[in-house]
Amino acid sequence: MQIMTPRGPALVEVDAVAGPRFMLVLTHGAGGGVESADLLAVRDAVNGIGGVVVRVVQPFRLAGARAPGSAAAQDEAWTALVRDLRRWYPGLTLVQGGRSNGARVACRTALAVGAEAVVALAFPVHPPGRPERSRAGELRGAGVDVLAVSGDRDPFGVPEEADTARLVVLPGENHDLDKKPARVGETVADWLGRRLG
Protein backbone atom coordinates (compact mmCIF):
# COMPACT_ATOMS: atom_id res chain seq x y z
CA MET A 1 0.00 0.00 0.00
CA GLN A 2 1.23 3.49 -0.81
CA ILE A 3 1.17 6.43 1.58
CA MET A 4 1.76 9.95 0.32
CA THR A 5 4.48 12.00 2.04
CA PRO A 6 5.71 15.55 1.35
CA ARG A 7 8.49 13.91 -0.73
CA GLY A 8 6.30 11.59 -2.77
CA PRO A 9 4.71 8.22 -2.11
CA ALA A 10 6.21 5.57 0.16
CA LEU A 11 5.31 1.90 0.01
CA VAL A 12 4.38 0.09 3.21
CA GLU A 13 4.13 -3.65 3.90
CA VAL A 14 2.27 -4.50 7.11
CA ASP A 15 2.91 -7.80 8.87
CA ALA A 16 0.12 -7.82 11.43
CA VAL A 17 -0.46 -10.04 14.45
CA ALA A 18 -3.56 -10.66 16.53
CA GLY A 19 -3.68 -8.45 19.61
CA PRO A 20 -0.44 -6.55 18.93
CA ARG A 21 1.60 -5.27 21.88
CA PHE A 22 3.59 -2.66 19.94
CA MET A 23 4.41 -1.48 16.41
CA LEU A 24 7.87 -1.63 14.85
CA VAL A 25 8.37 0.50 11.74
CA LEU A 26 11.45 -0.56 9.75
CA THR A 27 13.16 0.73 6.64
CA HIS A 28 16.00 -0.17 4.29
CA GLY A 29 19.44 1.25 3.62
CA ALA A 30 20.47 3.58 0.82
CA GLY A 31 20.98 0.81 -1.72
CA GLY A 32 18.70 -1.98 -0.57
CA GLY A 33 15.09 -2.86 -0.01
CA VAL A 34 12.79 -4.18 2.69
CA GLU A 35 13.37 -7.78 1.59
CA SER A 36 16.92 -7.94 2.99
CA ALA A 37 17.63 -11.03 5.07
CA ASP A 38 18.13 -9.13 8.32
CA LEU A 39 14.93 -7.10 8.02
CA LEU A 40 12.90 -10.24 7.24
CA ALA A 41 14.46 -12.04 10.21
CA VAL A 42 13.60 -9.10 12.47
CA ARG A 43 10.04 -9.10 11.12
CA ASP A 44 9.59 -12.80 11.86
CA ALA A 45 11.08 -12.62 15.35
CA VAL A 46 9.17 -9.47 16.32
CA ASN A 47 5.87 -10.88 15.01
CA GLY A 48 6.62 -13.84 17.29
CA ILE A 49 6.59 -11.63 20.41
CA GLY A 50 3.41 -9.78 19.47
CA GLY A 51 4.73 -6.83 17.50
CA VAL A 52 3.08 -5.61 14.31
CA VAL A 53 5.86 -4.83 11.83
CA VAL A 54 5.58 -2.21 9.11
CA ARG A 55 8.34 -2.29 6.48
CA VAL A 56 8.68 0.95 4.53
CA VAL A 57 10.13 1.58 1.08
CA GLN A 58 11.08 5.25 1.30
CA PRO A 59 9.99 7.74 -1.38
CA PHE A 60 13.46 8.15 -2.91
CA ARG A 61 13.68 4.39 -3.49
CA LEU A 62 10.16 4.11 -4.87
CA ALA A 63 11.00 6.93 -7.30
CA GLY A 64 14.01 4.96 -8.55
CA ALA A 65 16.70 7.27 -7.12
CA ARG A 66 20.06 5.68 -6.40
CA ALA A 67 20.85 7.97 -3.46
CA PRO A 68 18.58 9.03 -0.60
CA GLY A 69 19.08 12.77 -1.02
CA SER A 70 19.35 15.18 1.87
CA ALA A 71 18.81 14.14 5.47
CA ALA A 72 16.22 16.89 5.85
CA ALA A 73 14.15 15.55 2.93
CA GLN A 74 14.33 11.98 4.20
CA ASP A 75 13.41 13.00 7.73
CA GLU A 76 10.48 15.12 6.53
CA ALA A 77 9.03 12.20 4.56
CA TRP A 78 9.64 9.71 7.36
CA THR A 79 8.07 11.88 10.05
CA ALA A 80 4.91 12.41 7.99
CA LEU A 81 4.69 8.73 7.16
CA VAL A 82 5.08 7.53 10.74
CA ARG A 83 2.47 10.00 11.95
CA ASP A 84 0.02 8.45 9.47
CA LEU A 85 0.95 4.92 10.58
CA ARG A 86 0.31 5.79 14.22
CA ARG A 87 -3.29 6.56 13.31
CA TRP A 88 -3.65 3.00 12.04
CA TYR A 89 -2.65 1.59 15.43
CA PRO A 90 -3.65 4.20 18.01
CA GLY A 91 -2.38 3.57 21.50
CA LEU A 92 0.33 1.11 20.50
CA THR A 93 3.88 1.76 21.64
CA LEU A 94 6.01 2.83 18.67
CA VAL A 95 9.50 1.52 17.99
CA GLN A 96 11.26 2.44 14.77
CA GLY A 97 14.40 1.35 13.07
CA GLY A 98 16.17 0.29 9.95
CA ARG A 99 19.39 -0.89 8.47
CA SER A 100 22.31 1.38 7.56
CA ASN A 101 20.96 4.68 6.20
CA GLY A 102 17.53 3.71 7.49
CA ALA A 103 18.97 3.42 10.99
CA ARG A 104 20.26 6.97 10.68
CA VAL A 105 16.78 8.22 9.73
CA ALA A 106 15.25 6.34 12.67
CA CYS A 107 17.72 7.88 15.11
CA ARG A 108 17.30 11.41 13.78
CA THR A 109 13.49 11.34 13.91
CA ALA A 110 12.82 9.27 17.05
CA LEU A 111 11.83 12.16 19.27
CA ALA A 112 9.82 13.93 16.56
CA VAL A 113 7.54 10.91 16.06
CA GLY A 114 7.34 9.86 19.71
CA ALA A 115 9.19 6.57 19.36
CA GLU A 116 9.88 4.65 22.54
CA ALA A 117 13.10 3.10 21.17
CA VAL A 118 15.18 2.63 18.02
CA VAL A 119 16.60 -0.52 16.41
CA ALA A 120 19.74 0.37 14.43
CA LEU A 121 20.99 -2.46 12.21
CA ALA A 122 24.44 -1.99 10.66
CA PHE A 123 24.51 1.68 11.65
CA PRO A 124 27.10 3.28 9.30
CA VAL A 125 29.35 4.98 11.84
CA HIS A 126 31.52 6.41 9.06
CA PRO A 127 32.07 6.00 5.31
CA PRO A 128 34.44 3.08 4.58
CA GLY A 129 38.03 4.10 5.23
CA ARG A 130 37.00 7.51 6.65
CA PRO A 131 36.76 7.10 10.44
CA GLU A 132 37.27 10.84 10.90
CA ARG A 133 33.80 11.42 9.40
CA SER A 134 31.92 9.90 12.33
CA ARG A 135 28.12 9.85 12.44
CA ALA A 136 28.02 8.48 15.98
CA GLY A 137 26.39 11.72 17.14
CA GLU A 138 23.17 10.56 15.48
CA LEU A 139 23.12 7.51 17.75
CA ARG A 140 23.84 9.55 20.86
CA GLY A 141 21.35 12.22 19.81
CA ALA A 142 18.38 9.88 19.27
CA GLY A 143 16.96 10.87 22.66
CA VAL A 144 15.60 7.36 23.25
CA ASP A 145 17.18 3.96 23.93
CA VAL A 146 18.92 2.56 20.86
CA LEU A 147 19.78 -1.08 20.19
CA ALA A 148 22.66 -1.23 17.70
CA VAL A 149 23.41 -4.54 15.97
CA SER A 150 26.56 -4.62 13.85
CA GLY A 151 28.93 -7.13 12.33
CA ASP A 152 32.54 -7.16 13.47
CA ARG A 153 33.66 -6.99 9.81
CA ASP A 154 31.58 -3.97 8.84
CA PRO A 155 33.67 -1.52 6.76
CA PHE A 156 31.31 1.27 7.90
CA GLY A 157 32.53 0.78 11.46
CA VAL A 158 31.01 -0.44 14.70
CA PRO A 159 29.44 1.91 17.25
CA GLU A 160 30.96 2.38 20.68
CA GLU A 161 29.05 0.93 23.62
CA ALA A 162 28.75 4.40 25.11
CA ASP A 163 26.80 5.56 22.04
CA THR A 164 23.86 3.18 22.56
CA ALA A 165 21.65 1.66 25.25
CA ARG A 166 22.71 -1.77 23.98
CA LEU A 167 25.36 -2.78 21.45
CA VAL A 168 25.54 -6.28 19.97
CA VAL A 169 28.47 -7.08 17.68
CA LEU A 170 28.00 -10.29 15.73
CA PRO A 171 31.20 -12.16 14.83
CA GLY A 172 31.77 -12.94 11.17
CA GLU A 173 29.10 -10.53 9.94
CA ASN A 174 29.71 -7.67 7.52
CA HIS A 175 27.51 -4.68 6.68
CA ASP A 176 24.77 -6.87 5.17
CA LEU A 177 24.19 -8.91 8.36
CA ASP A 178 23.22 -11.80 6.10
CA LYS A 179 25.45 -14.67 7.28
CA LYS A 180 23.10 -15.74 10.09
CA PRO A 181 20.16 -13.34 9.91
CA ALA A 182 18.16 -15.32 12.46
CA ARG A 183 20.66 -14.13 15.10
CA VAL A 184 19.80 -10.56 14.19
CA GLY A 185 16.08 -11.23 14.57
CA GLU A 186 16.54 -13.03 17.89
CA THR A 187 18.71 -10.21 19.23
CA VAL A 188 16.10 -7.58 18.36
CA ALA A 189 13.15 -9.58 19.68
CA ASP A 190 14.96 -10.38 22.94
CA TRP A 191 15.83 -6.71 23.55
CA LEU A 192 12.38 -5.43 22.67
CA GLY A 193 10.70 -8.12 24.76
CA ARG A 194 12.68 -7.04 27.80
CA ARG A 195 12.51 -3.32 27.03
CA LEU A 196 8.76 -3.20 26.46
CA GLY A 197 7.82 -5.77 29.12
In short:
The chain is α/β, with parallel strands linked by helices and 197 residues long.
Keywords:
alpha/beta, Rossmann fold, 6 helices, 35% helix
Structure description:
This protein has 197 residues and is of the alpha/beta class. It has one domain (2-61, 74-86, 93-196): Alpha/Beta hydrolase fold, catalytic domain (Rossmann fold), CATH 3.40.50. It is 35% helix and 25% strand. It has an eight-stranded mixed β-sheet with strand order 1-2-4-3-5-6-7-8, sandwiched between helices. A hairpin with a 2-residue loop joins β1 and β2 (8-15). The radius of gyration is 15 Å and the shape is globular.
- CATH class equals Alpha Beta
Provide the spatial order of strands within the biggest beta sheet: 1-2-4-3-5-6-7-8
| Principal-axis shape | globular
What is the annotated CATH architecture? 3-Layer(aba) Sandwich
Strand content: 15-25%
Structural class estimated from helices and strands: alpha/beta
Biggest sheet record: 8 strands, mixed
CATH superfamily: Alpha/Beta hydrolase fold, catalytic domain
Question: What is the CA–CA distance across the termini?
Answer: 31 Å
Estimated helix fraction: 25-40%
Structurally, the number of domains stands at 1
Number of helices: 6
Question: For the CA atoms, what is the radius of gyration?
Answer: 15 Å
Report mean pLDDT, rounded to a whole number.
Answer: 96
